[in-house]
């Protein structure tokens, strides 16, 4: 090699987008495809096609870390459920991707009623005197719409040391840690 001139290499570096990570959530009702828009050593945020998770449920999650192509299979516990509606009185600007993951799971984050419905379900507007004569039974509750954003925060139940090292290496590599 001559000083001042570098020999060009023909190596092609393939850049891989770190997020979202495709994953499979395995529970009592079988496997469910989800995506992971944020991963941390403590757990992850997942995006779901519909609101099917409840706080306290335990699942197995299976995904591949994109930069290293390493498979992770771990038990996770649902600690928070986020639902953002696309319109109406329940719409909000809260974005769970910019919020910090909680240190401890909150017991009152999403309470369930006697029928197992989460408090995060949409409440139908109650008719006032100007709305007409509708009975209260017709407008009790409406399940969350499929068109909203459904996300959940999951924490690893007992992360294996080798999987913790893999996740830390991935986070360092993409500049998140």
Give structural notes:
The chain has a domain at 18-92 and 143-177: Thrombin, subunit H (Beta Barrel), CATH 2.40.10. The protein has a six-stranded antiparallel β-barrel with strand order 1-2-3-6-5-4. 7% of the residues lie in helices and 31% in strands. It has one helix and six strands, in the order ββββββα. By secondary structure, the chain is mainly β. The chain has one helix spanning 161-173, and strands spanning 21-27, 30-39, 43-48, 58-65, 70-84, 149-156.
Task: Give short descriptive properties of this protein.
elongated, 6 strands, 177 residues, Thrombin, subunit H, 7% helix, mainly beta
Q: For the record, what is the CATH homologous superfamily label of the domain at 18-92 and 143-177?
A: predicted glycosyltransferase like domains
**Rg of Cα set:** 22 Å
**CATH topology annotation of the domain at 18-92 and 143-177:** Thrombin, subunit H
Alpha-beta classification: mainly beta
Mean model confidence by pLDDT: 74
Major sheet: 6 strands, antiparallel, barrel
The level-1 CATH class of the domain at 18-92 and 143-177: Mainly Beta
Number of strands: 6
Query: What coarse outline follows from CA principal-axis ratios?
Result: elongated
Low-pLDDT runs of 5+ residues are 88-92, 102-117, 119-145
Distance between the termini: 37 Å
Helix content: under 10%
């Amino acid at each position: 090699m001559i000083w001042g001139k570098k020999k060009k290499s023909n190596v092609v570096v393939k850049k891989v987008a770190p997020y979202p990570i495709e994953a499979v959530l395995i529970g009592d009702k079988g496997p469910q495809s989800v995506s992971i828009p944020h991963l941390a050593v403590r757990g992850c945020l997942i995006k779901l096609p519909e609101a099917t998770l409840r706080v306290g449920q335990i699942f197995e999650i299976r995904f591949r870390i994109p930069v290293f192509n390493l498979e992770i299979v771990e038990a996770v516990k649902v600690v928070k459920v986020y639902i953002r509606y696309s319109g109406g009185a329940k719409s909000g600007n809260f974005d769970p991707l910019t919020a910090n993951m909680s240190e401890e799971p909150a017991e009152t984050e999403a309470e369930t009623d006697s029928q197992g419905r989460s408090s995060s379900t949409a409440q139908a507007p109650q008719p006032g005197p100007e709305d007409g004569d509708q009975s209260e039974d017709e407008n009790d509750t409406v399940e969350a719409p499929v068109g909203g954003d459904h996300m959940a925060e999951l924490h690893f139940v007992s992360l294996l040391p080798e999987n913790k090292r893999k996740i830390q290496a991935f986070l360092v590599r993409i500049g998140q840690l």
